[in-house]
Structure formats: C-alpha cells, structure tokens
Amino acid sequence: MESLIQTISVYAIPVLFAITLHEAAHGYVARMFGDSTAYLAGRVTLNPIKHIDLVGTIIVPIAILLVAKLAGGAGFLFGWAKPVPVSFGNLRRPKQDMIWVAAAGPGANLFMAIVWAVFLKVQGSIGLDEQFFAEMAKAGIFVNIGLMALNLLPVPPLDGGRIAVGLLPDRLAYQFSRLEPYGLFIVLFLLATNTLQYFLIPFYRVGLAVVEFFI
Q1: H helices within 33-158, ranges in order?
Q2: Angle at 211 (CA atoms; ends 14, 123), nearest 5 degrees
Q3: Is 127 exposed, middle or buried (0-12, 13-18, 19+ CB in 10 A)?
Q4: Distance separating alpha carbons of residues 50 and 35, to the nearest angstrom
Q5: Annotated domain spans of the chain
Q6: Is residue 43 within 8 Å of 56, Cβ to Cβ?
Q7: Which residue, 57, 42, 45, is CA-closest to 21?
Q8: DSSP classification of residue 49
Q9: I need a labelling partner for 12 at 20 to 30 A (CA). Which of 69, 116, 166, 191 fits?
Q10: Closest Cα partner for 33 from 83, 85, 90, 84?
C-alpha cells in the first residue's frame, strides 16, 4: 500500500495537468478559429477543477496503477477529463479548422513532455539529487507522450479521428465519421486483445524523438 501511495503521489500532478491542459488547448484553439463555446463555458482555463472528471481523471488512473502494482508490472496509464464543448459549425472553416482544434490537445501534451524533460535535465545540470522530483519529471514525460499517442489514434471521436475526418475528401470523411458511436468500443477491444500498443508505438516513438531533440 505504501508503494502504491508513493506511485500515486509521483503521478498525480503529471496526470492532472496532462489531461487539464489537453482539454484547455482544444477550447483555446477553437476560440482562435471562431468558436467561443468552451470560453463562455469557462473551460479555457488552467484551473483543473473545471476539467476534472471523477471517473476518467481520478478513478481510472488510480485503478490502472493499482492493478499494475498488484500484477507486478507496468500498465498503460491513461484517463480523460470532461470533454471541452466545441460547436464545429461556429468555426470559420469547419472542416479545415477542426484539424487544428483536434491537434491542439496532443500538441499540448507534446509540449508538456518537452517541459518535463527540460525540467529533468536542469535538475541534473545543477546537481539537484532529489529522487521524487526526478521520478515526477519522468512520469510527466511518459504520461504526456502516452496521452498524445492515444489521442492521435485515427478513431473518432479521438483527436486523431477528427484530424482524419478533416483531411479526408467529403464523402469519405462522412463515412468515416459514422464510426464515432463505436470509437470507444474499438479502443476497448484493442486494449482487451492487447493489440492497442502496436497501433500506438509509431506515435509514441515520434513523441520520444521530438523530446530527445529538445534536450
């Protein structure tokens, strides 16, 4: 139990801000392109309370950490926050602008992974030998890259699915978007069959490569 509490304390801040900034970024970019729905709802904010989902932000990540500890291995840590409301019809160019709104979330996670990596490097360069902060920085890197990779999966309603809808020709985009009601079940099926990781590895490797470039 003590080990689990230590793990939760290390991951708490990285997970909380990874999910919070991901959602806030969607709302911020949506406002830039003409949709103020999220802004008017008070969701373009770094206040975590505005974004926390009891199940997705707290219960699911803790449950994954608990199962991983009991199994003696490492689980794929993920979670979610309250979805930021976006009225795509309010965007100046809905189909094209949707790409940027969707990409903002994973982009925010990649940026945060870089920030955590720089923080880790600075600790080493100034000789700050504090294990807790080093572990937190490492958690921040891998949580954010993992969340980025998961959301870039081209399955609607994930961000990668919305990006794909924006890039595809209209007819194909419409047909592809009809998968949205089944997107969660597709992800759960991939997770249950232990094949999700194979689809995420390319995105994960790209994220790590970008982080390594900056440090």
Answers
A1: 37-40, 60-71, 94-125, 131-151
A2: 65
A3: exposed
A4: 19
A5: 2-214
A6: no
A7: 45
A8: G
A9: 191
A10: 90
Quote the tokens at residue 27: 């709302």
Structure-token pair, residue 41 = 């709802």
- Nearest residue to 77 (alpha-carbon basis) of 27, 15, 128, 33: 15
Reported pTM? 0.88
CA gyration radius for the chain? 18
The structure tokens listed for 137 are: 């920085």
Sole residue written with tokens 């390319």: 202
In one letter, which amino acid is 44?
Answer: V
**Does 23 participate in catalysis according to the annotation?**
yes
Q: What is the pLDDT of residues 26-52, one digit of tens each?
A: 999 999 999 999 999 889 988 888 888
CA-nearest of 163, 6, 1, 8 to 77 is 8
Q: Tens of pLDDT along 165-197?
A: 999 999 999 999 999 999 989 988 988 888 988
Question: pLDDT tens, 110-146?
Answer: 999 999 999 999 887 787 777 888 899 999 999 999 9
Residues 66, 53, 164, CA angle at the centre, nearest 5°?
100
Among the listed residues 23, 135, 180, 212, the single catalytic one is: 23
3-state secondary structure of 6: helix
d(CA 24, CA 84): 7
